[in-house]
Amino acid sequence: MINLSQSEPFASGGNRFCYRHPERSELCVKVMRPGRTAELLGRSSLVQNLARGIIF
After folding, report:
1. Which CA distances in Å does 36 have to 5, 20, 40, 42?
2. Bridge partner list, 30
3. Could you read off the pLDDT of 12-23 as tens digits, one per residue?
4. Which helix (H) or strand (E) holds 48?
5. Diameter of the chain by CA atoms?
6. Which of 13, 25, 54, 56 could form a disulfide linkage to 49, CB 3.0–4.6 angstroms apart?
7. Domain boundaries of the chain, sorted by first residue
8. 3 with 22: CB under 8 angstroms?
9. Which residues contact 18 (CB under 8 A, 6 or more apart)?
10. For residues 39 and 56, what is the distance between their CA atoms, to the nearest angstrom?
11. pTM (2 decimals)?
């Protein structure tokens, strides 16, 4: 598990915060903003199709 509790994001967008990886500075870790996961999953056509039983 990656502990980001003492880190500040270097960037943020409408859906995620972006942090530098604590051990590998060439990588970033994207974390969903609180409360956005459920909303975005509700918009996903794949999730909606699975919920309706339409599986490809």
Report:
1. 19, 21, 6, 10
2. 18
3. 988 889 999 999
4. helix 45-52
5. 43
6. 54
7. 11-52
8. yes
9. 9, 10, 11, 12, 28, 29, 30, 31
10. 23
11. 0.64
